[in-house]
């Protein structure tokens, strides 16, 4: 039988792997974006946020006396890289990446809400406030993606109609 603290630590390891997966999704996208400077800038900002989120998770894992799950980190990083590669052949790569990023941000939001609940139940209010920082950054990114999908789609359509490179 697992204690609430065990569940919380497992959640921390999962979040750590999830953020590594996020980096493996965003970094290849940033390397390929050419025609969408607003998307590029926001992804670069979120990569920096994600790196800080990983540092926060590392500190929480250290405080809990827990190791990172190298296997989870590697497996999710690989799957994220493969997901990012999957859209590179699509003529509407930028639009598909926008959909996928929005979905992944909402996955992260749900994961952090669950993890905050576990931290609170485990009596770890310090962890809850740290995790809330990560959640707030994910909420902001999801909101940005949501409010920019129309602009990205319209720019993609305009570039395609003019015969310019539109996919990335």
UniProtKB/TrEMBL annotation:
It comes from the Bacteria. Keywords: Coiled coil. Gene3D superfamilies: 1.20.1260.10. Residues 40-67 form a coiled coil. InterPro entries: DUF892_YciF-like (IPR010287), Ferritin-like (IPR012347), Ferritin-like_SF (IPR009078), YciF (IPR047114). It holds the Pfam family DUF892. PANTHER family: PROTEIN YCIF. This is Ferritin-like domain-containing protein. The lineage of its organism: Bacteria, Pseudomonadati, Pseudomonadota, Alphaproteobacteria, Hyphomicrobiales.
């Amino acid at each position: 039988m697992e204690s609430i603290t065990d569940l919380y630590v497992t959640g921390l390891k999962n979040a750590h792997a999830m953020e590594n997966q996020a980096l493996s999704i965003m970094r290849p996208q940033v390397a390929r974006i050419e025609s969408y400077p607003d998307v590029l800038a926001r992804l670069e900002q979120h990569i920096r946020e994600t790196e800080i989120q990983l540092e926060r998770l590392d500190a929480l894992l250290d405080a809990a006396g827990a190791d990172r799950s190298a296997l989870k980190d590697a497996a999710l990083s690989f799957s994220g890289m493969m997901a990012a590669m999957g859209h590179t052949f699509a003529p509407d790569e930028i639009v598909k990446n926008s959909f996928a990023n929005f979905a992944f941000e909402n996955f992260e939001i749900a994961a952090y809400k669950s993890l905050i609940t576990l931290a609170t139940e485990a009596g770890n209010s310090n962890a809850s406030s740290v995790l809330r920082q990560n959640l707030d950054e994910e909420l902001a990114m999801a909101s940005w993606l949501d409010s920019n999908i129309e602009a990205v789609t319209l720019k993609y359509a305009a570039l395609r109609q003019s015969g310019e490179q539109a996919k990335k």
